[in-house]
Design goal:
Length: 552
């Protein structure tokens, strides 16, 4: 196992490299020349080497040097240097001349020798497209000769017409095998068996991914010009991670990254053989409730039929992703709107039953970040008979919790405030006589505007809505640019203004802090992100995240 550490470390670094190259490197200048970054390959060519039982395959479908020409602070150069630091290999001299337009990394098997008695060692395969086969063969020879000089025990073997070079050293360098297959690819693996199986997969096409019905369905979902793509065999991924999924509905997932003039769109599609019925009808345009959400919003969630929020397509995508990776179905929606969720604790109510259940029409939920820990919240719902009944019920709940329903007016707009009354005392003279005053603390408020009932955390927020009718999120260019990229019809939007809500989000979802640190070049330039689900195929669940960056 120790002999594998070096190559496993290299593979992990390479996986991170693919993600960094696919996302962070173009966070600087892509908007100036997006056409130059459209990938020429419609799908990975290295799939012919990958078993159809492989858990994961990740591919960059462009030459890294095309991305490097757009970077600002040499992030790619630093990455290449760190990856090759211990190999005595010079990228520009030894790799750049022959490297083609695809880099694919795959975990090909969960256990190379398929013997559980001696532990499990996954098989890792790295495929580099070559545009000059002879130069790439020279590179492989050079690479292993330098390993030999460093103490590796090399072996050379001809396998089905392919020259394989490998070592079985127990040194810190670890076991490594490589070879050039045909005129198209340079392969590296952490064991000769992995290379041999890759060659077998080429010569027996029914063994590789190109013969997998799940993969063939998945690549049909690839957007034109995808810059990077990942394919996951979900049941095998779960087995690899030792997870028992609480909900195994989907068999495979494909993720793609595509550039346009406005930013980066990451799309994911979960595929299943079962029929899926969306709980809410699709929307052909943004809901009208958004007109009452101020442009200064940090988070906005909008759609229809709030009763199905926890079972919405976006929520399903999150549950499937977190269950596959972590083995748990973390409720991200509740975390995002935690300040609103906290209201139910103080009032003794259940959001799903007492509030969300009666929202059958449009809705919008928003948080307005402030310097204080708890942000202001807004809840807008389309009026209906059930909404009117629910407002009466909420007033009754407020009253039962000791709050007073106080009708007041702001700019001639009638508002009902839920207030908590308390007394304050003050000594008035030397005889210590006291005077009493009543203080009112607003715990929430609601009013009617047009065809919508609006609830807020305080009067200041309602006043902001009333005085900024022409400055809503619908008039925010950043929001309009973001939703313009999301296909329609869809199930609504989750919009995050990263610059305004980063601190809040990292408190509610702690893993984001780690992600932001690892992807610092990217997140430093992130302006906003928009999440939605869409698609009409009843046997797939499709969604996307649009990242709007500072240069877009």
């Amino acid at each position: 196992m120790n002999s594998q550490r070096s190559f496993i470390g290299f593979i992990i670094a390479a996986a991170i490299a693919l993600l960094v190259i696919a996302i962070a490197a173009f966070s600087w200048f892509f908007s100036k020349s997006p056409a130059n970054l459209i990938a020429p390959n419609s799908q990975p060519g290295a799939t012919i080497f990958v078993s159809k039982l492989a858990p994961v395959m990740v591919s960059l479908l462009a030459n890294p040097d095309r991305l490097q020409s757009l970077e600002r602070e040499d992030e790619l150069s630093k990455l290449k240097t760190s990856l090759l630091a211990k190999s005595d290999i010079d990228y520009q001299q030894d790799i750049q001349p022959w490297l083609g337009k695809e880099i694919t990394l795959a975990i090909t098997t969960l256990d190379i020798d398929r013997d559980p008695e001696n532990g499990k060692q996954p098989g890792y395969l790295l495929a580099l497209a070559t545009q000059q086969p002879e130069k790439s063969r020279e590179f492989v020879e050079l690479f292993f000769s330098k390993r030999a000089l460093a103490g590796a025990n090399l072996a050379v073997e001809e396998y089905k017409g392919v020259k394989l070079i490998y070592d079985n050293s127990q040194s810190e360098q670890g076991l490594l095998a490589g070879g050039v297959v045909g005129e198209g690819f340079v392969l590296f693996a952490n064991d000769p068996k992995v290379l041999k199986e890759a060659i077998n997969n080429v010569q027996a096409p029914d063994l590789n991914l190109t013969s997998s019905p799940e993969y063939l369905r998945a690549i049909e979902e690839l957007p034109k010009g995808s810059l990077a793509v990942a394919f996951l065999n979900l049941p095998v991924v779960a087995k690899w991670q030792g997870l028992e999924l609480p909900e195994q509905l989907y068999e495979s997932e494909i993720i793609s990254f595509t550039l346009n003039s406005k930013g980066l769109l990451a799309e994911t599609t979960f595929l299943t053989s079962s029929e899926i019925v969306s709980p809410s009808p699709p929307l052909t345009k943004p809901v009208g409730a958004l007109q009452y959400i101020p442009a200064s919003v940090g988070l906005a969630i909008s759609g229809s039929n709030l009763n199905n929020l926890g079972n919405s397509d976006v929520a399903k995508i999150w549950r499937q992703a977190t269950a596959t990776v972590y083995g748990s179905e973390e409720d991200v929606v509740s975390r995002l709107i935690k300040p609103l969720v906290d209201v139910q604790k103080g009032w003794g109510i259940n959001l799903s039953e007492d509030i969300f259940s009666w929202v059958k029409g449009e809705y919008a939920i928003a948080l307005l970040p402030e310097e204080r820990t708890t942000p202001h919240w807004i809840f807008v719902v389309e009026k209906s008979e059930s909404v009117e009944q629910a407002v009466t019920r909420l007033d009754a709940i407020a009253s039962a919790n000791g709050l007073t329903i106080s009708p007041i007016s702001i700019d001639q707009q009638k508002i009902f405030a839920w207030t908590e009354l308390s007394t304050a005392t003050k000594k008035t003279d030397v005889k210590e006589r006291s005077s009493f005053s009543i203080e009112a603390k607003v715990r929430g408020a609601h009013t009617t505007l047009g065809n919508y009932e609006i609830f807020t955390s305080d009067l200041e927020t309602i006043d902001q809505i009333l005085t900024a009718k022409d400055n809503s999120i619908m008039n925010n260019p950043k929001f309009q640019d973001s939703i313009a990229v999301i296909p329609r019809p869809n199930q609504g939007y989750i919009y995050l203004d990263w610059t305004k809500s980063q601190d809040l989000l990292e408190r509610q979802i702690p893993v984001l802090k780690l992600v932001a640190v690892l992807g610092k070049p990217f997140f430093n330039n992130l302006r906003s992100l928009t999440v939605s689900s869409y698609g009409t195929d009843t046997r797939s669940l499709k969604g996307g995240v649009f990242f709007q960056l500072n240069n877009s």
